[in-house]
Design a protein that fits this description.
This protein is of the alpha+beta class. The chain has one domain. The chain contains one helix and three strands. Strands 2-1-3 form a three-stranded antiparallel beta sheet. It is elongated, with a radius of gyration of 11 Å. The mean pLDDT is 88.
């Protein structure tokens, strides 16, 4: 299995800033999850560190 270490990761947060999904290396998946709820948005997580 390949390493996704240097790929950006995304999370979905609700209007209150609480994470509701993620992190995931797939932006399309994050976009799909964000579209399921009102006020959700996709954020890119900073790279590095675990």
């Amino acid at each position: 299995m390949g390493c996704a270490c240097n790929k950006p990761k995304y999370e979905v947060v609700d209007a209150a800033g609480k994470r509701v999904f993620g992190p995931t290396p797939y932006k399309t998946t994050a976009d799909a999850m964000a579209s399921r709820g009102e006020g959700r948005e996709v954020r890119e997580l900073p790279k590095g560190g675990k």
